[in-house]
Amino acid sequence: VSAPASPPSSPSLPPVILTQDELKKIAAYKAVEYVESGMVLGLGTGSTAKHAVDRIGDLLRQGKLHDIVGIPTSKKTHEQALSLGIPLADLDSHPAIDLAIDGADEVDPHLNLVKGRGGSLLREKMVEGACRKFVVIVDESKLVKHLGGSGLAMPVEIVPFCWKFTANRLQNLFQDAGCVAKLRTCGANGEPYVTDNRNYIVDLYFKEDIGDLKAASDAILHLAGVVEHGMFLDMATTVIVAGELGITVKNK
Ligand code: 5RP
Questions:
Q1: In terms of pTM, does the model score above 0.90?
Q2: Which molecular-function annotation in GO is an example for this chain (predicted)?
Q3: Which of 35, 68, 103, 140 could disulfide-link to 46, CB 3.0 to 4.6 Å?
Q4: ipTM summary value
């Protein structure tokens, strides 16, 4: 389904070029149209999901939505939702979620995703794995032919204990695909990036196609020391893509 992302510009005016953040916001607002009063909602993490959470907060404040319960996928989203007055809970009290809305780093033609460049992949996978409908919101730069083929990071959350050992094992798993595993760091001194779950993240970079994604997923999860990876296979039910030519809604 395609619709203009913004009203058509008048013939006498130059076309409006939207920024990437404006496209993210358009996708996010479109996704919030799926939200109904009384729903338990998975609240995603990242710059695109942030627009959706802001929008939900606005609609609650305006009285256009009510009786919403949000299940945040990160401490950051928890803070944002709290500041907007969105009632919050967790998976322990609400194990069944009606709808989750979140961004992604890559989306392939089968609606498989890479997530976690923002570091929240474990909680995202737990929450989004428990929802009836998972709506992914992206700008068109996130569309790829093959996951991992963009040359950008495929994140894996690992326990800090002997992280080099686990990073080497991950790299060796995908030797044929020219994989390089790098510990994610932050700050001026390059300290390890620590997730909300007090784990580390190893980013995998591939020179060649990873091949069978399910086999790759199983192999990664089989390694002791790995907590979760950022491939979200067969989880998205809808992907909303905002591009210069309009919005595309892809359904599973
Ligand atoms: C965080 C994520 C984000 O959804 C993903 O990184 C996309 O982020 P953004 O919307 O900022 O482009 O998976 O762990």
A1: yes
A2: ribose-5-phosphate isomerase activity
A3: 103
A4: 0.98
